[in-house]
Please model this.
Amino acid sequence: MPHFLCQTCSIQFAETEAPPSLCPICEDERQYVPARGQQWTTLERLRGGHANTWRTLEPDLLALRSVPAVGIDQRALLVRTPQGNFLWDCIALLDEATIAIIRALGGLAGIALSHPHYYSTMVEWGRAFEAPVWLHAADRAHVTRPDPCLRFWEGDTQPVLPGLALHRLGGHFAGGAIAHWTAGAGGRGALLSGDILQVMPDRKHLGFMRSYPCLIPLPPAEVRRTAAYCDALLFDAIYGAFHEREITTGAKAALARSAERYCDWIDRMVEP
Model:
């Protein structure tokens, strides 16, 4: 039986004879069902008309993205470390070429997801590389294809490799997480943020939302807490979820400036 994928968010479901009646990720207030209605595909169909592209963001950081675009069109980031490679977030398309390239690079020591919108075909990735797939336990209810490769972590911090740790920020989702890579940005440190911290098109600011497509903001107290948490980490770069969404230097100041700007405008809106 096939594992159906939602065409809108690209999340994969447990195998069934017929497509699911709905996609709970898209029915949630943070996402949406398109006007044309819920539509479905499979990984096999994607392999027939899509391919993955690769881009070097810095010497030990590679970005993978599918063309034509699939689902939300996020990218996955491959971090190379002396202790093994680590995949941050997933894209739906996993084909023979991608598997061969990653195996030639040394395989994967682990995979982690920032939040449910990017769960995609995470089980396929975990099985293909016999790698643990790290998810925050607060988002366990959003898993649509359970599997033994899934590892649920709790609390605010989870080391996954030397020099690479996951941090729960919440906000967008209860278990919304970022990865802190101490060797990134030439040793100055980097955050891999998904869209828990959304790098804006100007690559000078970040956004903070409960829902980006549905324009549901976060309360200022939540944004201030997030900014304060990140200020305790050592980093100079932030790599976001989408193509050309990165701040390669001065990212800590950009985060503080963006949080201040966001909270200032929300506070003005609620002033008596």
